[in-house]
Design goal:
The chain is α/β, with parallel strands linked by helices and 120 residues long. The chain contains 3 helices and 5 strands. InterPro entries: STAS_dom, STAS_dom_sf.
């Protein structure tokens, strides 16, 4: 799920759950809404993201690229090291500012991700 909040200068996306191929159908509508808001700063809250693949990374990259073309900036906050790695592998980490000061509230975050899912 992706929620959009706005202030006069900022759009904030709060992403919950997986950001992957399965969720891609909602990406064009969300991207159009974000671009249409024309805020200078886009903050993407990734505290509750449980998994991101290259499709999710491409979505984030397209948002950052659109903002950059308008002279804006995109900030990632609460981003997991694995998510940063996916963006780095895509060659797009420099499109983002990383909020390393943000600390997710334990009451609102998802449990830690398993490196290797357990099979039954």
């Amino acid at each position: 799920m992706i929620e959009i909040a706005t202030s006069p200068a900022t759009t904030t996306l709060v992403i919950t759950g997986d950001l992957d191929l399965v969720e891609r159908d909602q990406f064009p509508e969300i991207a159009a809404r974000v671009v249409g808001l024309r805020r200078q700063l886009l903050v993407i809250d990734m505290c509750r993201v449980t998994f991101m693949d290259s499709t999710g990374a491409a979505f984030l990259i397209s948002l950052a690229d659109s903002g950059r073309k308008r002279g804006g900036a995109t900030v990632l906050r609460g981003c997991d090291d694995r998510d940063l790695f996916v963006l780095e592998v895509c060659g797009a980490l420099d499109l983002f500012r990383i909020d390393s000061e943000h600390h997710c509230s334990s009451a609102t975050t998802t449990p830690p991700r398993d490196e290797f899912p357990q099979s039954s």
